[in-house]
Amino acid sequence: MIVEKLNIGIIIGSVRQGRNAEEVGNWMYDFAVKRGDAEYELVDLAKYKLPFLGEELPAERRDEANNAISAWTDKMASFDGYIFVTPEYNHAVGGALKNALDYLNIQLNNKAAGLVGYGSLGGTRAHENMRLILGELQVADVRTAVTFSLMTDFENMSVFKPADYHTANANTMLEEVLVWSGALKTIRK
How confident is the model over 44-52, as a mean pLDDT? Predict the structure, then answer.
């Protein structure tokens, strides 16, 4: 019997200049790919140039915006599950990721997600915020999260040097995402 591997998107959820998200996202992607248990794809939100939902755009920007929205929604629809990499900004998820999620609904329904965060408290408050958003989008978020501290996992709060103990949480989180993604895939078709 041939078992089809699940497609899991690892979403870099920050678009800020000087962000740490790329390093964290790349670490998570490299870690996941080495497991060989799913098809993982790194998706950088910064490449989508999404307008604010409901923003009135000048005529010359509408086609570009519509193309970005279409590319974003199609990409997100293509996955069986997600790992969201998000910093914590002001006790919540960043505005760009929230805006991007607001463009989605049916594309995410009945899928699973894991959370990877970073910040002064490891992004845990952003995770709590994400759990509320994902619940509304009918996404089953898994219990285990990976939380990187700006004080201990980054040198000078900018050079990513994660402690070894994060690998246990990363493995557990990925296992939970795969189990839930596989189970939920059976009810989507």
Answer: 97
pTM as predicted: 0.96
List Cβ neighbours of 95 (8 Å cut-off, separation of 6 or more): 89
Among the listed residues 14, 19, 18, 44, the one whose alpha carbon sits nearest the alpha carbon of residue 29:
44
Which residues, including other chains, have CB under 8 Å from residue 142's CB and lie 6 or more apart? 112, 113, 114, 115, 173, 176, 177, 180
* Mean pLDDT value across residues 110-122: 96
- Decide if 145 contacts 169 (C-beta within 8 A): yes
Residue among 110, 86, 115, 112 at smallest CA distance from 99: 86
8-state DSSP, 6: P
Contacting residues for 132 by C-beta, under 8 A, at least 6 apart:
none
Q: How far apart are CA 118 and CA 120, in angstroms?
A: 7
What six digits make up the tokens of 186? Answer: 């059976």
Q: Cα 80 vs. chain centroid, distance in angstroms?
A: 13
Neighbours of 156 (CB within 10 A): 6
Q: Euclidean distance between the first and final Cα of the chain, in Å?
A: 20
Percent composition of the chain: helix, strand, coil (DSSP 3-state, to 5): 45, 25, 35
